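Appendix B, record 7
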Amino acid sequence: MAQQKRTVGGLGLHWDHPLVPDDMRALVKSACEKTNIELEKDGIHFEFCPTAPEMTQEDIENFLKKHVKDAYLIGGGVRMFPQCLILLERLVNTIPRIFPGAKIIFNEGLDDVSSSCRRAFPELEKSNQPK
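C-alpha cells (predicted):
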C-alpha cells in the first residue's frame, strides 16, 4: 500500500518583504524551490506560505485554515527579526490550537530546510529505504 504524502507549510517572510536583505532574496527564493523538488521524491510536499509581521491574530488563523498541513516549518526570517516576535509567538501558539496533530519544525539555515522537514516524518525515511 502506498504511503500517504505528507505536507509541510514553510512559514516565512516573502523574499520581497522589506525586512529580507537584498542579498538574501534570491537565496531564499531558490531555497524554497529547491526544497520542494528535493522533498517530493521523499513523499513530502513543501509549500512556501509567506507570512508577514503585520498579520493580526485573525489573519493568521484564516491564513492557516487555508493552508492545512501535516507540519509547519517556521523559517529564520520569522525567528530572527525582532519585528517578527509577535508573529512568531502567534504562530507557535495558534498552530497547535487549530491543528493539534500538526508538527512545528525549525531549521538552522537555508541549506537544511529539506533535512529539517524529513526529521519531522521519520516513518517516511524507513519506508524510502531499499529493501
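Remarks on this record: The radius of gyration is 15 Å. Residues 58 and 129 are 42 Å apart (CA to CA).
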